[in-house]
């Protein structure tokens, strides 16, 4: 329970606007997905109060963008340090509201902090440009300026890191920030708000609005004229809707949407490494990540030996309460379990074979391997978002690349091979924003995270991550 936290002041129960906790008469329950027990109640913001956050951010925007890069860097460092000092509590809170194993929750908090640290450094490197002019009487100077107030909506699968990836970049660039976390996991976001307060980040620079009326809150955040930029991580369906809404005021938009990652094992792959990589790419967060392997293509000639190694490794994973020694937590809720069950049942009725089925608690989904899958199955064209590995086979390199690209998504892709020609050939042809080559875990603060096609646009992390929050401004000096 929440009583296990060392510092209970990290448990906050209402929206954080302009440095204050905003009460409301209505509340909603935050539930532990492992046993469905109510952890606490959180004030449900009245959508008409969301504008208060916009006004607060707008009022401090000019002062924030006029701080020096070094000052913003210092604020971010303090925030990162406080998150580090409270790592155990933050991880516990995350497991309690989200369900992932505690070791993974610790990993997420560290990963989340790494973005704050990264952008605390990048803040100082917003370089401009000079260009040779076409006339000697002119000089061209290019500078970069913050876009202005940024609003974001984030999902429940990474309640900490999906916020820091956006917020740290925005704050570093000089943008004030408002986030609506998922109503399923508001506590991690509110704990981060408390620590932003302790870090001395000025009131109104970082705001969190929590509530169950996502549609109405989203409407304010995507249409308010005082918001310059909108950034979203979540499903493609909701992302399309929000992009449309943001068009009404021509906001800058970043979209990190769904994925349908292929994971290809060629006949020359290191099978042991590939199986280890697949366990990580498929089963992290019980399969609930947008970069999870969704379609596993095995060269026909290595199918049997690979499946043996992979199944052996999968048998070692225990499903259960994230606070205990398990590697797979529950799924986020009943709807998520029902969705995965339906995909699996339909695949079996369409000819897939149940190769392995693990054990699971009532709120978890058993680790599953399905063989004989085909691209036309529903399970191959949808994000599974659960611990189900779907196996396809291939005999021809060109054919498997074509199949891997046969999806409307384009976020992550993975493949294993020891042949440099094949590696370059395949990497160049896969239509995805990120490619793991002999690697199953690819996301880190130094690298640009993002997708192509209907997986969205914009990049988070790396020096590209600041671009999403900066405008290019061209100065033309004449009559020199
Ligand atoms: P997921 O599959 O991760 O739940 P969603 O896209 O449903 O993906 O949710 C991601 C975020 O989008 C959550 O914070 C959720 O509250 C929010 N959301 C869902 N529907 C809407 C909507 N119609 N307008 C604005 N935000 C929404």
Keywords:
binds adenosine-5'-diphosphate; 6-stranded mixed β-sheet; 7-stranded mixed β-sheet; 15 helices
In short:
The chain has 480 residues and is an alpha/beta fold. The chain has helices at residues 50-65, 69-85, 87-98, 102-122, 161-173, 186-198, 214-223, 236-246, 271-283, 303-315, 334-349, 378-381, 397-404, 420-429, 464-467; strands at 15-17, 20-22, 27-31, 38-43, 129-131, 139-146, 150-153, 177-180, 206-208, 229-233, 252-256, 261-265, 293-299, 353-357, 368-371, 388-394, 412-416, 434-437, 456-457, 470-477.
Largest sheet: 7 strands, mixed
In the sheet with the most strands, the strands line up as: 14-15-16-13-12-17-18
Q: How many helices does DSSP assign?
A: 15
Which structural class fits the helix and strand makeup?
Answer: alpha/beta
How many β strands by DSSP? 20
- Note the beta-strand portion: 15-25%
Would you identify the regions where 5 or more consecutive residues have pLDDT less than 50?
A: none
Amount of helix = 25-40%
Shape: globular
Which compounds are bound in this model?
Answer: adenosine-5'-diphosphate
What radius of gyration results from the CA coordinates?
23 Å
Q: What integer is the average pLDDT?
A: 98
Distance between the termini: 70 Å
Domain Aldehyde dehydrogenase: 21-474
Pfam family, one: Aldedh
Protein name: Succinate-semialdehyde dehydrogenase
Family: Belongs to the aldehyde dehydrogenase family.
């Amino acid at each position: 329970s929440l009583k296990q936290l060392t510092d209970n002041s990290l448990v906050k129960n209402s929206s954080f606007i302009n440095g204050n906790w905003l009460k409301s008469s209505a509340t909603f329950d935050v539930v532990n997905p492992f046993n469905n027990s109510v952890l606490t109640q959180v004030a449900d913001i009245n959508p008409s109060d969301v504008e208060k956050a916009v006004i607060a951010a707008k009022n401090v925007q000019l002062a924030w963008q006029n701080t020096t890069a070094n000052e913003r860097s210092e604020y971010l460092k303090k925030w990162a340090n406080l998150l580090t000092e409270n790592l155990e509590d933050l991880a516990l809170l995350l497991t309690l509201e989200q369900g992932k194993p505690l070791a993974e929750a610790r990993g997420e908090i560290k990963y989340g902090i790494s973005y704050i640290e990264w952008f605390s450094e990048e803040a100082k490197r917003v370089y401009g440009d000079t260009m040779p002019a076409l006339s000697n009487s002119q000089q061209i100077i290019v500078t970069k300026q913050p876009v202005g107030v940024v609003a974001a909506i984030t999902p429940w699968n990474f309640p900490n890191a999906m916020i820091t990836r956006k917020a740290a970049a925005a704050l570093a660039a000089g943008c004030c920030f408002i986030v609506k976390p998922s109503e399923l996991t508001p506590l991690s976001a509110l704990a981060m708000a408390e620590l932003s307060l302790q870090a001395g980040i000025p009131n109104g620079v970082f705001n969190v609005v929590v509530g169950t009326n996502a549609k109405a809150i989203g409407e304010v955040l995507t249409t308010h004229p005082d918001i310059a930029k909108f950034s979203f991580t979540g499903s493609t369906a909701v992302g399309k809707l929000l992009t449309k809404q943001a068009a009404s005021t021509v906001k800058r938009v970043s979209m990190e949407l769904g994925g349908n990652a292929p994971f290809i094992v060629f006949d020359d792959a290191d099978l042991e490494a590939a199986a280890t990589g697949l366990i990580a790419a498929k089963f992290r967060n019980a399969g609930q990540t947008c970069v999870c392997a969704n379609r596993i293509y095995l060269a026909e000639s290595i199918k049997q030996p690979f499946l043996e190694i992979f199944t052996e490794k999968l048998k070692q994973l225990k499903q259960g309460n994230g606070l205990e020694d398990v590697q797979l937590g529950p799924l986020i809720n009943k709807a998520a379990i029902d969705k995965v069950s339906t995909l699996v049942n339909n695949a079996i009725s369409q000819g897939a074979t149940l190769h392995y089925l693990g054990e699971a608690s009532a709120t978890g989904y058993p680790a599953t391997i399905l063989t004989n899958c085909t691209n036309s199955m529903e399970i191959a064209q949808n994000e599974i978002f659960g611990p189900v590995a779907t196996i396809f086979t291939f005999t021809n390199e060109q054919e498997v690349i074509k199949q891997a690209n046969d999806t409307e998504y384009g976020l992550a892709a993975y493949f294993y091979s020891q042949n440099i020609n094949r590696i370059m050939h395949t990497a160049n042809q896969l239509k995805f924003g990120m490619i793991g080559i002999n690697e199953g875990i690819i996301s880190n603060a130094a690298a640009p995270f993002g997708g192509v096609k209907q997986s969205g646009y914009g990049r988070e992390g790396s020096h590209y991550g600041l671009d999403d929050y900066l405008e290019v401004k061209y100065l033309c000096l004449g009559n020199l």
